[in-house]
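Lab notebook, bench 4. The sequencing result for the construct came back, and we need a structural model before the next group meeting so we can plan mutations. Quick request posted to the team channel:

Model the 3D structure of this chain.
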Amino acid sequence: MQTLDHPAAAGTNSGAPVGDKQKRDRRDGEDAAQELSSKRMRPPGVRSVGWALVQAARLHRARTGDRLAKLGLFAGQEQVVQALASAGTMTMGDLAALLRVRPPTASKTVTRLAALGIVERRAESGDGRVVRVQLTPAGLAKAEAIEQIQEEVEAELLDHLDKTDRRRLRKLLRKAARGLAEAAGASGQSTDVDAEIEAEVDDEAEVLPT
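Done. Here's the predicted structure in token form:
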């Protein structure tokens, strides 16, 4: 004869087996733990402009790097190739200044590109201490491929923005860069950004209806 405090009797009167209730409680506990974990894993700066900028830059760099790898290049090397494609020939000092890196850093990158047959170095006529760098024919072909890569990644980056938003974003980023340059005391970089902003204003004026 069963009594009310017998497990079987208690389970029958509750309307559901004890095992099912334990499973529901365990499932509810797991759901609550998962929700709490997801909240804790949310980046602390997820609502900041800087965080969004860093994430966009990281993804942009990754997409570019994947494509550069197919050309046998590492991220950063394309900047040297593009600079030389634009200038034709540059001294090591001018190249380092343009890329805003230390001369040894620029020299190391150029050495690696020279080993790949992409650039060549020549001593300045009349002054062997000055070394000039220029692209080889293979380097010029790389420059064209790099330009195509950047256009493709740029299209991906701006796919969901119309022309007005793209222009506004470009201007806002340059203004933000100017603020950081001024805060860091980098007057030269601030001046460069100011020139870019002024050029942007001129470009906008050209497309405005008269």
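The first helix runs from residue 7 to 14.
Will bring this to the meeting.
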